[in-house]
Amino acid sequence: MSAAHSKARVLIVEDHPIFREGLAQLINRQKDLITCGECAEAREIAAAIETHKPDVLLLDLMLNGAGGIDLIKQLHALFPQLPILVLSMHDESVFAARALRAGALGYVMKQEASDHVISALRTILAGELHVSRKIGIALMQKAIATPENSPHDGIAKLSDRELHVFELIGAGVSTREMAPRLGISVKTVETHRENIKHKLELTSGAELITRAQSWVRGNG
């Protein structure tokens, strides 16, 4: 067996070309890992998996407004044996547990050092979960007692669907554009918006848009 064939095959799903290229270079420098393919759109992933037969999927949580948690659920249902490592610019205290419940085996923030990505890939390829020490401790603490007054308490209250709507609002997607994308009615989208405002203690649509845009930019 050749050296290339003995390496674990990584499919990269990332919509920022420069960041995607950097990940590929990082992975291809490893003795035990190799990039087998890349894609930038959620609709391309299933076909890419079928074509490239990866051993692990490295998945950006938010692809051009695509709902990352729903996407993880869909991919896990289609390819239950494929380990998924999530990359995200968003705070793991909000998303890591959701991603793991959806079917991912690991979660790494993009701000982490590059060696953390490689370590995480190796961990989930071994069939183990990977989260940062910080989030591991936080999840243990949460299992003991729900922490109060967290800066992300409001966001954490959102359901997965509400969080997806919130992300789409921040990405500039209108209510009428959002409805067919999510397969729901305009009225249901409006209900989600009102629920989000209530949970985040916002008083207007303008406040909601501002908060959502800030969230999408990674500013909380």
List the helices and strands and how they pair.
Blueprint: E1 8-13, H1 17-28, E2 33-39, H2 45-52, E3 56-60, H3 68-78, E4 84-88, H4 92-102, E5 106-109, H5 114-125, H6 133-144, H7 153-156, H8 160-170, H9 175-182, H10 186-199, H11 205-216
Parallel strand pairs: 1-2, 1-3, 3-4, 4-5
Protein model, in words:
The protein has 220 residues and is of the alpha/beta class. Helix content is 52%, strand content 12%. The protein is built from eleven helices and five strands, in the order βαβαβαβαβααααααα. Strands 2-1-3-4-5 form a five-stranded parallel beta sheet, sandwiched between helices. The radius of gyration is 18 Å and the shape is globular. The protein starts with 7 loop residues before the first strand and ends with a helix. The relative contact order is 0.10.
In short:
It is built from eleven helices and five strands. The chain has 220 residues and is an alpha/beta fold.
Report how far apart the termini are.
48 Å
Which of globular, elongated, flat, extended, rod-shaped describes the shape? globular
Rg calc: 18 Å
Strand order in the largest sheet: 2-1-3-4-5
Q: Report the sheet with the most strands, covering strand number, pairing sense and barrel closure.
A: 5 strands, parallel
Our estimate of the beta-strand percent is 5-15%
Tell me the series of helices and strands, N- to C-terminal: EHEHEHEHEHHHHHHH
Task: Tally the helices.
Answer: 11
Average pLDDT taken over every residue: 85
Poorly predicted ranges:
146-151
Q: Helical content, roughly?
A: 40-55%
Number of DSSP E strands: 5
Structural class: alpha/beta
